[in-house]
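To whoever picks this up:

The parser on our side crashed when reading a file containing two proteins. I've narrowed it down to the boundary between the first structure block and the second sequence. Both blocks are reproduced below exactly, byte for byte. First block:
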Amino acid sequence: MCSATVLSVDRRHELENLRRSIAMLTPGAKALTREEALLLFQELGDVRTRLDHLRRALRQLADEEE
C-alpha cells in the first residue's frame, strides 16, 4: 500500500471518529445542530471520495503520458 493510500485511510478514520463524536451530541446542542454537523461530515466524506478518484485518474493519465 503506498503512503498516499495509507494517509487517505488515516484521514477517513479521523473523519469517522469525528462524525461519531458529533453523533453523540445532545440533539439541539448550540452552534451547528447535530443534524447539520452530520450532514456536513457526510458531504465532506463524499467530496473526499471524489477527490481520491480524481487523483487516481490524474495519476493514471500522467503515467500514460510517460
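<<boundary where parser fails>>
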Amino acid sequence: MQRSLSTTGRDVLSRLSFAAVGIMVVAPVSLAQRAPDAVAVDPTHHNVLFENDHVRVFRAMAAPGARSPMHTHPPFVFVGLGTARAQLTPAGAAPVIFDVHPEQVMWLENAEHSWEMLAGQLHVIAVEVKAAARGTPPPAITLPSTDAVTADPVGHQVIFENDYVRVLSGLAGSGYRSPMHSHSQGLVLIELGRVRMHFTPAGGNSMIFDLHPNQVMWLDAGAHSWEVLAGQHRAIAVEVKSATAP
C-alpha cells in the first residue's frame, strides 16, 4: 500500500516539485552501470548521522554554488528542513529545477543524479531504508488498539505509508498531553520545533526531554506517553516496518 506524497502542516507539494520527483526516480539498472553512493562520492554534502540494522540516516546541507557529482541513493524518505532551489540532472536526462521546502516529505527510489545549488540553503534529512534496498518488504502486522494513530489521532497524523515505512506528523502546543500509546516499529524522530517534554515510557521512570529544531534520533519500538511542558512540538516520525519489537 502506498499513500500519496505529502507535506506536514503546510501545503501539498508544488506541481514543480512533484514533477521533479518523477524524474529523480529512474528505472533500475545494473550496479556496474550506476554511479557511486552519495555518501561515498560526496561526503562534503552528505553527512551520516547514524546507522543501524534498519536505516542509514544522513543530513545533506549546501549553499548556493555548491555542486554534487553524479551519485545514487538507495530507497529513502526525504524530509526537507530548509528552503532551496537546485538544478537537478538525472542520469541520462535533461536538467530540471527542483525546489525544496520545509516539512516537504517524499519517498524516492532508484535515484541517480547530480545537482547544483542555485539559491537558498539546502537542508535535508534522508532516512535510507535497508529492507527497501534489499527489496524485501517485512510481513504486515496487525496494529494494536494502543497504536499512536488510534490512541492519539490529534498528536499523530499519517502523511505517507508504503510497504516499508509509515510517516507521521506531530503537532502539539504547551499543555498538550498524549496518552499512553505504542509504536510497533522503531522510528526516526525529526524534531522541527523547540520544546520541553515530560516523557513516560511504559513501566519506566518519567524524564524531561529538551528537543531543539532539526534534532534527529532513533527510538526503539515501545509504548509511552508525553506532555508538552513548554514550546511547540513539531515533528516528523519515520516508522520503519522492519524494526518491529522482539
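After patching the parser it read the second block fine. The chain has two domains: 6-134, 148-244. The first helix runs from residue 15 to 24.
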